[in-house]
Amino acid sequence: MIQVYNTLTRQKEEFKPLEPGIVKMYVCGPTVYNYIHIGNARSTVAFDTIRRYFEYRGYDVNYVSNFTDVDDKIIKAANETGMTPEEVSKKYIEAFYEDTAALNVKKATLNPTVMNTMDDIIAFVEALVEKEAAYESGGDVYFITEKFKDYGKLSDQSIQDLQVGASQRTESADDAKKRNPLDFALWKSAKPGEISWDSPWGKGRPGWHIECSVMATKHLGDTIDIHGGGQDLAFPHHENEIAQSESKTGHPFARYWMHNAFVTMGEDGEKMSKSLGNFVLVHDIIKEIDPQILRFFLASAHYRRPLKFSESSLQEATANVSKIQTTFSNTRYRLEQAVESLEDDQDVWASFEALEGKFQEEMDDDFNAANGMTVLYQFVKEWNVYLEREIVSRVILEKLLEKAEQLFAIFGMKEVQEELVDDDIQALIDERLEARKAKNFARSDEIRELLKAQGIVLEDTAQGTRWRRV
């Protein structure tokens, strides 16, 4: 039984999908005006991990995540570079796919864009105006927050308190068009030189919040199972999505709301963001470190806990990935001498099945990746103990490889099989073996150092000498 922490109810609840065996999941995607930073990637990786775990548990996941390709920041980037907004968006959508593929993030079932959903957005806004849940003012269209009695339920704020807060803000030109400071834009009239579309209210473009409501309901239905995103989106973005969606459809918008915590930087735990200028781009860092290490770092913490980005945390992830990959490699090596099966195979495998059961218990508890990973470390530890046996079973080794591949794939990790050495390196390894037999240890050590300089580390084990690249 999978338990999900629901931001809406502020408690863990048993996950019960609308349709048995199917998860309808919408996750807010990036605004595509720049490369994604590690904070953006944390949300992408967290929900990819959650999706993968649902699939591991036998669910069919319909996973929709949008690209916001109409936005002030995109228009600004277009003006600064001499590109069109479409060209800016296309460039960074392609970059997103490239960077997330490097992190072994599965592509969404669908990645809708705002520009390709414009007719649906205009029709959605029209429906809200017809229901008198929205009004036109000077070419803009605003949602009437007072008409939605549950406004504030996701962020646990009363509409009265929100109205007081809104009234105390410095008034902007847009506020002058509103009946109430808390009303928010569904449609914004075009400014000179900006990209725009024809609508019943004149040329303009959508407000931010309406876009996700339309794309989610268009592709997943009026009510979806899970809506996810970063915790900074809970208010006002997700709050406004609920208000406009439920006002339009008359149905609950999402049954479970899930929000991931931030990536932090520095001793003060400051949130990583472009606005603060303290961000690290995925596009840049994966040129310096193995993308699998970054993925492992992002995926192996509980999604609702802040994640501190530091050199030491990356070093820890590097060490853990290396240990796991070495275990895969050692298993491949032992397969060459393994016997077909042994009498205790059933008992041995039962102990690994028990660990998988413990792993499921931890992950079923709101996708607790940190605890789940602790169980997998124990799995690897016992796996290594088995590899130290003088005689090992091919049946067990092949099962271990298959099960480990399945479990680590939940965290986006996969086995990296060593490349075959070329003839010269193999010849040196063979020469060293002969030197050791002849007790010519000086030559043996010389060859070891020579191979080390070429990135080949030798390991002398009870079962013979083996190598790995570093």
Automatic annotation (TrEMBL):
Motif 'HIGH' region mapped to chain: 30-40
Subcellular location as annotated: Cytoplasm
EC number(s) stated in the UniProt entry for this protein: 6.1.1.16
Domain of life: Bacteria
Binding sites annotated in the UniProt record for Zn(2+): 28, 212, 237, 241
GO molecular function, a single term: zinc ion binding
Signal peptide bounds: none
GO process annotations (BP): cysteinyl-tRNA aminoacylation
PANTHER family named in the record: CYSTEINE--TRNA LIGASE, CYTOPLASMIC, CYSTEINYL-TRNA SYNTHETASE
Record's protein name: Cysteine--tRNA ligase
Chain's gene name: cysS
